[in-house]
Specification:
Blueprint lengths: L1 E7 L4 E5 L17 H7 L7 E6 L18 E7 L14 H20 L3 H15 L12 H20 L3 H14 L4 H13 L3 H14 L4 H30 L27 E8 L5 E7 L5 H12 L16 E5 L3 E4 L32 E4 L11 E4 L12 E7 L1 H8 L15 E8 L19 H7 L1
Helix pairs in contact: 2-3, 2-4, 3-4, 4-5, 4-6, 5-6, 6-7, 7-8
């Protein structure tokens, strides 16, 4: 069971497995694995890290898009553990699977006690996968022994992820537990720590308050609450000093080129000469639906081009993705918007632009004046990357803060009656079902734009008025 990275001698990356949960498990007699990796593993001890070169005869035997046949390569490998070959999951009945899942969890516990954190994370993930094959018609019909074992593996895995600073993984695993056990103090506490570490201070505080409500005497939680409050106080004081310095400078009111020069009250009419793109979106196991957008290249050319390239995937880079294909919408806020486009971390904290890590706010000429406006998500001024959002209604509070650059031409029914009403699993507006962009690209066909739905006016019954009078 290994983590590894292979690359050409010039440094070009070929293959990489770095997530301990998904470590590379292989048989030492496998013909599908690079022979140099197998031979290297046989000379290593548990927990050992090795860096070595491999000649072509022990390398990749067939040519690919990245490599010629039999190239000399470098291997960086870390051996997490090794064991005898397990029986395949399908060869075990339900009772045997449950017992084996318990055994795997015990192996994980042993590695944790020995401070082999990465190996422990791998085994806890395996324990989860074995328990998740024990399927019952409903959650309530699943035996409590299975549910408790699965929950225990998720919580232990979360502890490992926090130890490895894999904060987003912790949040994901704890959320699974909280969905079924809303006030679980351990899950709330672990998620609170992870949220704090990535700067989600309000989320961290909310989770910790719920955890302390269930475990008010827990010294570790009490100490962490003091840490959060202290940090928040220092942050507020720093912000106050910052703005005091800003307002002492009179020049702030004498900008020659202010950021907001002008803006429209309404979105301009459809212009067929602007590029059109589509996103094919699939919610859970439902049939996919298509959204078609106009990108207003005549108003915000740089921002429109950034989005168009991520739709076509035409920009190629050896280490970075430049395509929305297979990415997800990670946030849905009813009566506001759906946010997606994080091609790196899928949770709203990652990504980049086609111009570099970030690019500046181009202008705020286009307003968020209706449903279906396509706009850039950001983390403050001039921090545009690949993330975007689509409005469900008029959102004037985004004007001057987010750069609008497109509008929905087709798909309002799906946007407002399927995407908007999708249930969110937590207070962080994470959608309960995965919302995946299964394909995307330029839309070449002629199209008659759909009009955004108008707000329905309440009908007043004259018959009711007569009764009231």
């Amino acid at each position: 069971i290994m983590l590894f990275k292979t690359s050409l001698l010039n440094g070009a990356l070929l293959q990489s497995v770095s997530d301990p949960e998904r470590a590379f498990a292989f048989l030492t007699d496998s013909e599908a694995v690079v022979k140099g990796l197998i031979l290297g593993s046989l000379t290593m001890k548990r927990g050992e890290v090795a860096h070595y070169q491999v000649k072509g005869e022990y390398s990749y035997q067939e040519a690919s898009e990245k490599t010629p046949p039999k190239p000399d390569i470098e291997i960086e490998a870390e051996l997490l553990d090794f064991h005898e070959k397990w029986k395949h999951m399908i060869d075990l009945d339900d009772k045997e699977r449950l017992e084996f899942a318990k055994k795997i969890k015990t192996i994980g516990n042993d590695h944790f006690k020995a401070q082999h954190i990465k190996a422990a994370a791998y085994y806890y993930r395996q324990g989860i996968e074995y328990t998740e094959t024990l399927i019952y018609p409903t959650f309530s019909q699943t035996p409590s022994e299975i549910l408790e074992l699965r929950k225990s593996c998720y919580l232990n895995l979360s502890i490992m992820c926090n130890s490895l600073s894999l904060w987003h993984s912790t949040i994901k695993h704890c959320t699974v537990v909280i969905e079924k056990d809303d006030e679980n103090p351990k899950a709330r506490y672990l998620r609170s720590v992870a949220s704090f570490k990535i700067g989600r201070f309000e989320d961290a505080l909310l989770d910790l308050k719920i955890a302390l409500k269930k475990s008010p005497e827990d010294a570790k939680m009490q100490e962490f609450m003091k840490e959060i409050k202290s940090f928040k106080q220092k942050q507020e004081e720093a912000e106050k000093k910052k703005y005091q310095k800003i307002f002492q400078k009179e020049s702030i009111y004498k900008e020659i080129n202010p950021r907001i020069t002008s803006s429209l009250q309404k979105f301009p009419p459809y212009d067929p000469s602007n590029p059109k793109v589509f996103l094919e979106i699939k919610i859970g196991a439902r049939d996919s639906k298509i959204l078609v957008f106009e990108l207003l290249k005549n108003k915000v050319p740089k921002t429109a081009e950034n989005f168009r390239v991520f739709c076509t995937g035409e920009k190629v880079h050896p280490y970075r993705s430049y395509s929305y294909k297979d990415s997800y919408f990670h946030r849905v806020v009813k009566n506001f918007m759906a946010q997606g486009g994080d091609i790196e971390k899928r949770d709203g904290t990652g990504g980049w632009s086609i111009y570099g890590d970030k690019f500046e706010d181009e202008n705020f000429f286009l307003p968020h004046s209706q449903a279906g406006i396509l706009s850039m998500a950001n983390h403050g001024a001039n921090t545009n990357g690949c993330q975007f959002f689509i409005t469900f209604k008029k959102a004037p509070w985004c004007d001057g803060k987010n750069v609008a650059f497109g509008r929905l031409l087709k798909g309002f029914d799906f946007l407002l009656n399927e995407l908007q009403v999708l249930e969110a699993t937590t207070e962080f507006q994470i959608p309960k079902l995965p919302i995946k962009i299964v394909s995307c690209g330029e839309f070449k066909e002629e199209i008659a734009p759909e009009a955004p739905p108008k707000k329905k006016k309440a009908k007043f019954s004259t018959q009711l008025l007569t009764r009231l009078l």
